[in-house]
Amino acid sequence: MDLLVHVGDLSYSDGYQARWDEYFREMEPIIAHVPYVTCPGNHEVLPADLGSPLGYLHRLTLPGKNSIINSISSLYYSFNFGSVHFISLDGEDLLNQPLITAEQRQWLASDLASVDQTATPFTIVYIHRPLYCDAPFKQLIKECTEYSAYLRGELEELFFSHRVALVLTGHIHNYQRTDPVFEGKSIKSNPPSTGSFTNSTYVRPGSPIYVMNGAGGNREGIVPPVSSTSPWLASYEAHWGYGRIVIESSTTLTWEFHDANSDQILDMFTLTI
């Protein structure tokens, strides 16, 4: 493993600092040796932390330009790692709702426009809340309708126009993966003129793939399966697990979702850009 990416809700501290300490003691054998990059989730921004991500800011030094001084502007940042340009976004407000500030959106547009796609042909974005998801029960419907629609309105056009390859999210406690999709239309209903695809192989699809992996494990339990009719949904797993990205070449990557107990691969795809 060369890099560990965590898409928010790190320790479920909910403002209780002892949980942060326990979490990092458990993680230390890994993150003492492997770079660990994160984005904030809603459990990092809660009233017990005075409505701000204090514990998150004081425990993590991330690539953001102001991270060393614990600035809110360090909650979003970008960096290059090998042939990948990674972008971490902050989608949280103080009321447990999604928020993309005008300042952050302007920064994102500038950052995406500056990517050298010769040096870093893959752009991968991670943000805690999903832009695409299906909800199996009433309590989550707002997350996968109103909230996800808001995030798509703020971000999706930028991702599409700047050729983002992959968007990683969490928040809902299961695993869901889209086909390449833009404005609700998947590659299956709107195939690109120069690309091709199967259920697990995409060649120059022209739009991003969205992976929602909120299945890392937490005290709230797994969210059960749903009978989905969403045309963009390619895979849905109600299992604890983790994702693995392998950069195969300058034009091809492979994604795998592994069951946490058996290490069985439950979903995978290959993307060629």
SSE topology sketch:
Layout (H helix, E strand, L loop, with lengths): L3 E3 L10 H15 L4 E3 L15 H6 L17 E5 L2 E5 L13 H12 L8 E5 L11 H24 L4 E4 L5 E4 L2 E2 L2 E2 L9 E2 L3 E3 L5 E5 L19 E5 L3 E7 L4 E8 L5 E8 L1
Parallel strand pairs: 1-2, 4-5, 5-6, 6-12, 11-16
Antiparallel strand pairs: 3-4, 7-12, 7-13, 8-9, 10-11, 14-15, 15-16
Helix pairs in contact: 3-4
Short account of what is shown:
With 273 residues, the chain is of the alpha/beta class. The protein is 21% helix and 26% strand. It has four helices and 16 strands.
What are the main properties of this structure?
273 residues, alpha/beta
Can you characterise this structure?
By secondary structure, the protein is of the alpha/beta class. It has helices spanning 17-31, 54-59, 102-113, 138-161, and strands at residues 4-6, 36-38, 77-81, 84-88, 122-126, 166-169, 175-178, 181-182, 185-186, 196-197, 201-203, 209-213, 233-237, 241-247, 252-259, 265-272. The strands form four sheets. It has a seven-stranded mixed sheet with strand order 3-4-5-6-12-7-13, with no helix packed on it. Strands 10-11-16-15-14 form a five-stranded mixed sheet, with no helix packed on it. Strands 1-2 form a two-stranded parallel sheet. Strand 4, helix 3 (102-113) and strand 5 form a beta-alpha-beta unit. Helix 3 (102-113) packs across helix 4 (138-161). The radius of gyration is 18 Å and the shape is globular. The two termini are 23 Å apart. The model has no long low-confidence stretch (mean pLDDT 88).
